[in-house]
Amino acid sequence: MSMLVNGMDVYACYQCGKCSASCPVYFAMDILPHQILRLLQIGEMDQVLDCESIWLCTLCSACSTRCPRGVDLPVIIEELRRAGLRRVSGPGRSQRAFHNSVLRSLERHGRVYKAGLAVSGHLSTGSRQRDARLVLALLKRGKLRMWPSRIRGRLVVRGFFQRVQAGQEGEKDV
Amino acid sequence: MSNYAFYPGCSLHNTARESSQSLLLVMDRLGIGYDEVPDWNCCGGTSAVSLDEQLAVNLAVRNLLQAKSLAGDGLVVPCAHCYHRLMSGKRRVESDPDMRRRVEKELRHPVEDLPPVYNALQVMERAEILEKIRLYAVKSLSGLKVACYYGCQLVRPPRLTNFDHPENPTGLDRIVEILGGEAVPWPLKTECCGGNLSFAKRDVSEKLAQRILDMAIECEAECIVTACPICQANLDLHQFQLFHRSTGAEAASARKKIPVFFFSQLIGLVLGFDSHAVGLSRHFIPAWEALALAGIR
Ligand code: SF4
Ligand code: SF4
């Protein structure tokens, strides 16, 4: 029996738990790495798509490097994320909002406009006053460019995004 | 003289500017030639791959094609995250003809003979470059105790990154020793610093960063040196934010701070550049105490 997620067979996992023991963000996860695999094995896809863990994973590959069964969990997690990146609510919403802002910036300019991200509320220091102080401190050290840096090939990059969007709309139709 | 294409990436244009600033100085001094990749685009980081796999590959491959004509000896990528993404895109088109065809269609360009991709550490840790650093050194770290921190994206997964070991790499340790410093043994060399959660999930990212700083201090390091510009910026900025968030009493009893360098800053200092030139004035946590210990000002 095999069930592939992004080319990885989830049945290869024998639940030793080494991945969870290696994971640096386990303390914040609602479902631990080895539990993600177990849920996939028993077909509980919805639970996995709805957890915060897949958005907390930093893709650090500590788990996959140590897994005795060669299971590449970050590769699986990337695929799970692709199913839900555009969702607004639910666990992991701040991480998704961040990724979506990065992608908007990349789509527009071809590069990421960090000062734009900073002022659009993605610093999450917990208060406006602290956000402002941080932006100032970064500017003072020349660590934020005031204006976006645009590339000449941005239309090509925009084309990549159009294909993605067309694909997603196509999926909805069927 | 060697000639590389150089890919800075968005972080080195912003929060991690001191990394490219010092690296380019050092490359110049050591006679390692480079040209910036013309019109490079963002590598997409962990965001593009979370939306669409081919998008991530497209973004990587466009950069590799832009670099191709310049990269006689390959493409140098100082940012560990960009390095990871460019390597991953390159592997993907080289091993999957179907993906290659799709990328060619979107880029309207044949995808072949992509240049080899190196991280800056992989270029600097080569025996002949280490020998050059030894020859050109005008100062020494004089036994400064350094925690060598590689982070996660640079060395893992091993199928992608070609480092000596995914959990105990040694390139930085060798460089620090050539510079006259002492690489302290410590256990978190390749643990994730949470840098890519620092915007979206500050509380989690802070725990990861603090764990690394505490461990380095516990192992008696006097500074940390990183090979990843995002780790450097994250560990430095985290200490600043922690300090400014604590109330008066907490700040007074605040935790010990530890300066965090990008490795080319230390090389630059030993080669005789001053602290301003290698970008130390951009740091949040001042480094003068550590430099005084090393007898460098
Ligand atoms: S380390 Fe590998 S085999 Fe063990 S529980 Fe995790 S995924 Fe399964
Ligand atoms: S890749 Fe993700 S799940 Fe695996 S150890 Fe790192 S953070 Fe945890």
Automatic annotation (TrEMBL), chain A:
Superkingdom, natural source: Bacteria
Cross-referenced InterPro entries: 4Fe4S_Fe-S-bd, 4Fe4S_Fe_S_CS, HdrC_iron-sulfur_subunit, Helical_ferredxn
Q: Mind listing the GO molecular function terms for this protein?
A: 4 iron, 4 sulfur cluster binding; metal ion binding; oxidoreductase activity
Q: Which UniProt keywords apply?
A: 4Fe-4S, Iron, Iron-sulfur, Metal-binding, Oxidoreductase
4Fe-4S ferredoxin-type domain residues: 1-34
Record's Gene Ontology CC terms?
A: plasma membrane
Name residues in a coiled coil: none
- Quote the protein name from its UniProt record: 4Fe-4S ferredoxin, iron-sulfur binding protein
Native organism: Acididesulfobacillus acetoxydans
The organism's lineage is: Bacteria, Bacillati, Bacillota, Clostridia, Eubacteriales
From TrEMBL, chain B:
Domain spans labelled Cysteine-rich:
4-86, 146-236
Q: Which UniProt keywords apply?
A: Oxidoreductase
Q: Which GO terms describe its molecular function?
A: oxidoreductase activity
Output the superkingdom of the source species.
Bacteria
Q: Which InterPro entries match?
A: Cys_rich_dom, HdrB/HdrD_reductase
* Pfam families to which the protein is assigned, alphabetical: CCG
Entry keyword annotation includes Oxidoreductase: yes
* Protein name as catalogued: CoB--CoM heterodisulfide reductase-like protein
